Amino acid sequence: MKKNTFKLFTSSLLFGALALSTACSSDDNKNAEPVNPVTDGRWITVAGALMQTDPGDGNGGTRVYAISKENAIDPNFSVDVYANGKAVQSSRTARLQSSVDGSTLFNITYTGANGGEFMTYKVTGGNNFTESTAKVNISQYAGTSPRWVKLFDGDKTGVAVNVATPIVTTNEDKSYKNTRGIATVLSLDMQQTLIAGYKQYQIPLTAEEEALGHHIFRLDAPTLNKAGNKLIIGTWMRKSNPANPATNESSFTRLGSKSVVVDYPSLENPKVITSTVGFGDTSGYRSFNSFVATDGNIYQATQRDTQKGSYILKINQSNEYDNSYVFSLDSALGIKGSYIDAWRYVGNGIAYAVYTYEGTSQGFLARLDLNARTATKVEDIAYDADLDFGQYQGFVVDGNNFYIAVTPVGKDGNIYVIDIPTGKVTKGAKLINKPGNHYIGVF
Questions:
Q1: Which residues contact 399 (CB under 8 A, 6 or more apart)?
Q2: From residue 234, how far is each of 4, 276, 341 by CA, in Å?
Q3: Which domains does the chain have, with CATH numbers?
Q4: How confident is the model at residue 352, as a pLDDT?
Q5: Which helix (H) or strand (E) element contains residue 140?
Q6: How many helices (H) and strands (E) does the chain have?
Q7: What is the reported pTM?
Q8: pLDDT at residue 11, rounded to an integer
């Protein structure tokens, strides 16, 4: 099925914003403050997904292997996660997160007998990952396959979200009224390994929207705002056919992009906000889909708009969409039907996105300037027709370096390390692949 970080430290970013730009010379960069904090001795954990039935489906489980930053940037170093890595608990593709310093992996098991179980792994290099004895299962609240991400709050909190199968409601005359599911928003104390709180409720759209069959099918990618008092949660929308409510319409006129805003940490008072700029979903797929940028605003990607492609939307510090901000990836790259599989804010208004577009299933990488609203395809990558970022999850940002794993399905690839201020690309460690498998991230 197709497609479906951390909070940048203000002081470092302010210095970086004054000292760095894409026009800086190499000599300037030597004396510049790093864009992001640097963790000395940080491990880079490489993750690979195994094929189950079809090449690239990633449903056969996930293996991980940790290397040093020095090895990650060395093209003469090789990693074979499938031969030498450790399996992490998950019946299908694991939903992994990592601590800012790379010393800990966080995992919630996806489906299966242990679906919904949260645990951590201590990273000590190679295939040495010590699984925590403390675990907590959230499946009774958020299901056995919850969507979740950690908040950028110093690795303290994870938030899992879920929408139970939507139910059709009719009026007294048996005519269609609406389709709604019960939403769950759950906060997880990742330090103490316990459920900190949860709330469950229906999240209605307007009566007019619901009468047409529109409803929230999935929630994902919650993000904590700069003030720390609201969560912005992405949505995946669907539409029932009012004449035959048991079926969803495969093609329909999309509403403006929507997010759900809830109070934090209480998780109460859900409110739907709507963009008039974007019309795609805001849920992402298997990674973060919105970020608090250096300017304090939230920037959010859209997906599944086959007409206009992906947008980057702006949510201001009043927790409303800023509809004066228009950033179309189609327009910026001169393509049609763009689709952002995953992306990462890296500081000073710069982000990187992996994407595809109409007419090809191949993945590409672009550098985005959120302030200028421009995008440039990264050329110094070994592109391949079998390169698919549809399940991509993890990027690493450390100092001035942005790390990404690039492997076509069933073929060897590399880690690439990109200098954030200049955009210079360095081909790093070789990633050894196996038929049908692909690497889904670095953590």
A1: 34, 35, 36, 37, 38
A2: 13, 15, 14
A3: 10-442 (2.130.10.10)
A4: 98
A5: helix 139-142
A6: 7, 32
A7: 0.92
A8: 39
Q: Which amino acid is at 282?
A: T
What is the arithmetic mean of pLDDT over 349-372? Answer: 98
Instruction: Give the DSSP letter of residue 254.
Output: P
Q: Where are the beta strands (DSSP E) in 124-170?
A: 129-131, 136-137, 147-150, 157-163, 167-170
Best CA proximity match to 282, nearest among 262, 298, 302, 253:
302
Q: How open is the CA angle 153-351-298, to the nearest 5 degrees?
A: 50
- Total residues belonging to the chain: 443
SS3 378: coil
Q: What was the pLDDT predicted at 31? A: 52
What are the start-end ranges of the H helices in 32-94? Answer: 69-72, 81-84
Query: In the sheet that 62-68 helps form, which strands lie side by side, from edge to edge?
Result: 86-88, 62-68, 43-49, 438-442
Tell me the average pLDDT of the chain.
93
- What are the pLDDT digits (tens) for 305-334? 989 999 999 999 999 999 999 999 999 999
- Peptide bond between residue 34 and the one before it cis (omega within 30 degrees of 0): no
Encoding tokens for residue 308?
Answer: 């206009």
Which one, of 285, 266, 280, 154, lies nearest residue 221 by Cα? 285
DSSP H/E element including 15: helix 10-19
Reading the block at residue 350, the tokens are: 């710069």
Closest CA to 347 of 15, 1, 55: 15
Q: Which residue has the higher pLDDT, 78 or 114?
A: 78
User: At residue 197, what is the residue type?
Assistant: G
- Residue 376 corresponds to which tokens in the numbers above? 């440039």
pLDDT at residue 141 tops 80 = yes
| Residues facing 252 on adjacent strands | none
Q: List for the chain the helix, strand, coil content (%; round to 5).
A: 10, 40, 50
**pLDDT at site 32:** 67
Rg over alpha carbons for the chain, rounded to the nearest Å, is: 21
| Predicted pLDDT of residue 10 | 38
Residue 286: name the closest of 144, 121, 96, 430 by CA: 96
For residue 208, the SS3 value is helix
What do you get for the CA distance between the two ends of the chain, in Å? 24
pLDDT in tens, 390-428: 999 999 999 999 999 999 999 999 999 999 999 999 999
Sign of the CA dihedral with 384 first, then 394, 232, and 197 last: positive
